[in-house]
Amino acid sequence: MIRNLAALELYGKSAFVLLLRYSGLRIGDAVQLDVNRIQENKLLLHTEKTGVPVYCVLPDMVVKALSAAPHSSSRYFFWTGRSTVRSAKGKWQRRLQRLFELAKVPNGHAHRFRDTFAVELLLSGVPLERVSVLLGHSSIRITERHYAPWTRSRQEQIEADLKAAWSNDPVVLIATEQFGNNLRTHEIICRARSLLFFPEQTCRMYA
Question: What topology does CATH give the domain 2-161?
Answer without folding.
Answer: hpI Integrase; Chain A (1.10.443)
